[in-house]
From TrEMBL:
Residues 22-523 form the ABC transporter domain. Pfam families: ABC_tran. SMART domains: AAA (SM00382). InterPro entries: AAA+_ATPase (IPR003593), ABC_carbohydrate_import_ATPase (IPR050107), ABC_transporter-like_ATP-bd (IPR003439), ABC_transporter-like_CS (IPR017871), P-loop_NTPase (IPR027417). It comes from the Bacteria. Transmembrane segments: none annotated. GO terms for molecular function: ATP binding. Keywords: ATP-binding, Nucleotide-binding, Repeat, Transport. This is Sugar ABC transporter ATP-binding protein.
Length: 537
């Protein structure tokens, strides 16, 4: 079914019942000379779960930061929560007092503190009392966790929890922060800013159960996501931003992914299908007896032109492999052959990997892949510096010319070399990282969650970049928990459990369902060290 234009409701013309949970009118935001939000107006009703989607850089995070009081909107904006209008400038504390609570991607938990300390830290900061009883706090936190049936120990350190448990703690903390107002029939708006992005899909349902309890208490939820299927599944309606403008709000029921994409991108988007499997050749990478923190005695081979996915549940070790093979794995052991070069992982350094033609694009791009405060040009040029030496020093003119070409080829938005890398949206940061590495024509490309937090159009562009690298002869290893991504991108998918490779899917056998089945499947024998595909070459 396609979306009838009449179903798209421009928010400022919407007849929202007054007072709505959240009422936003005419919110614009300008950074320097760039206007990134333009006259956004929207209403969210009590009891409603609203999705917020848009391409990378469309302004979602900026809107959320305005609501959180981190950014002041341009003059002329009006924001009210349950009929209470923000007087003057909204501040983070003011936002909380109004009933706006946020759970961001990083969850904002302190890993070294206990669950109970994390749960109460905000309340303590706001409290005027000087008396704190850790025991009493732990008891009430435990009661709360038990009420939600989470099975988490309030005295456990957050660092000992799984990613899912941490996300649940962050959401329960947010809901609990609004409890007092909820008791007076004034439950607030819970803003979920992609807190599910690091979680396997199977686990995410539990988080949405928590959010649903909040809406059934009369609260509202605003859910920011790039996962359109999930968004359609868990929301009542979806608001679409494009180029900082609100393009409309559609009911989730009766709308499909293609409708949303059309609103997001402004045109039809041809979604890719898998490319033909490349012919088998001698492997570029041969890893034997790899051991790391979770990985135990893993061996694998990667052929030239081959895109291999590696996946599994959290803790299975799949996400450690790119780092082990790049020489960046701590305490790693095993042997690695890259073309003619051989390495003992115990003594291999990342620089050895770079010299052997290995490119690692890490998952945590904020901390491992880049320097946020440096410019896009600086971040792009790190790998090219050795080749840009001239008799007078670094040839920055040449680097600028190359950089300009790269941001145009990789469609980095905005196409400006001098802006701080940290101000780019998530998907554009990822494109800069890929551009940086691809300019070195690597023989081996190691990727960890290459499209996390990336919109559907940019995802296609990143797939094309990776495919072009493979077509040029590189061996690609893509570690990801995103089963759809693996099924679209990979020629071969290896599935890990308990630190070992337990299954291999090839060509037409690769599907989301098959990957899920193998990831969850009961304990089975490891597949032989060298892959079937490489073994036949
Ligand atoms: N502090 C800032 N200074 C200058 N420009 C900024 C700043 N913050 C954001 N921008 C720009 O505003 C635009 C919107 O960015 P925003 O982060 O809101 O997009 P987004 O929709 O959240 O993207 P993503 O899905 O990638 O997270 C981008 O072009 C970004 O480069």
């Amino acid at each position: 079914m396609t979306l009838d234009d009449q179903q798209i409701v421009p928010e400022d013309r919407q007849d929202a019942p007054e007072p709505s949970m959240l009422r936003v009118r005419n919110v614009s935001k300008t950074f320097g000379e760039t206007r990134v939000l333009r006259e956004v107006s929207l209403d969210i009703a009590a009891g409603e779960t609203r999705g917020l989607v848009g391409e990378n850089g469309s302004g979602k995070s900026t809107l959320i930061k305005v609501l959180a009081g981190f950014y002041q909107p341009d003059p002329g904006a009006e924001i009210s929560v349950r009929g209470r209008q923000v007087a003057g400038s909204l501040t983070p504390l003011g936002a909380r007092d109004l009933g706006l609570t946020f759970v961001h991607q990083d969850l904002a938990l302190v890993p070294s503190l206990t669950v109970s300390d994390n749960m109460t830290v905000n309340a303590l900061a706001a409290s005027r009392s000087w008396r704190v009883s850790p025991k009493a706090e732990a008891r009430s936190t435990q009661k709360l966790l038990d009420e939600y049936g989470l099975g988490i120990d309030a005295r456990a350190a957050v660092s000992s929890l799984t990613q899912l448990e941490r996300a649940m703690v962050a959401i329960v903390r947010a809901i609990d922060g609004m409890r007092e107002s909820a008791a007076h029939g004034q439950a607030g708006l819970l803003v979920l800013d992609e807190p599910t992005v690091f979680l396997p899909k199977a686990d995410r349902g539990l988080l949405f159960d928590l959010a649903r309890r909040h809406t059934s208490d009369g609260g509202g939820v605003l859910f920011v996501s790039h996962d359109l299927e999930e968004c359609l599944e868990v929301t009542d309606s979806i608001t679409v931003l494009r180029d900082g403008r609100l393009r409309g709000t559609v009911p989730s029921k009766g709308t499909d992914r293609a409708d949303i994409i059309r609103l997001m991108v402004g045109k039809e988007l041809n979604l890719s299908s898998r490319r033909p499997t490349p012919p088998a050749h001698l492997p570029v990478v041969r890893a034997t007896g790899l051991n790391g923190t979770s990985v135990r005695d893993v061996s694998l081979e990667l052929g030239p032109g081959e895109i291999v996915g590696i996946t599994g549940l959290l803790g299975s070790g799949f996400d450690e492999l790119p780092y082990l093979i790049s020489g960046a794995g701590q305490g790693a052991t095993g042997r690695l052959a890259v073309g003619e070069r051989e390495f003992d992982l115990a003594s291999m350094r990342p620089v050895d990997g770079i010299r052997a033609g290995i490119a690692l694009v890490p998952g945590d791009r904020a901390r491992q892949g880049s320097v946020a405060s440096l410019s896009v040009l600086d971040n792009l040029s790190v790998q090219a510096l050795p080749t840009a030496r001239a008799w007078f020093g670094i040839d920055w003119r040449r680097l600028r010319t190359v950089g300009q070409r790269l941001i145009a080829t990789y469609d980095v938005r905005p196409q400006k070399l001098d802006v701080a890398y940290g101000t780019l949206s998530g998907g554009n940061q990822q494109k800069v990282l890929l551009a940086r590495w691809m300019q070195t024509n690597p023989g081996v490309i190691l990727l960890h969650e290459p499209t996390q937090g990336v919109d559907i159009g940019a995802r296609e562009q990143i797939f094309d970049i990776v495919r072009a690298g493979a077509d040029a002869g590189a061996a690609v290893l893509c570690a990801s928990a995103d089963q759809e991504q693996l099924s679209l991108l990979c020629d071969r998918v290896l599935v890990m459990r308990d630190g070992a490779i337990v299954a291999e899917l090839l060509g037409g056998d690769i599907s989301k369902a098959a990957i899920a089945r193998e990831s969850l499947g009961s304990a089975r024998q490891s597949v032989p060290p060298a892959s079937r595909r490489a073994a036949t070459s």
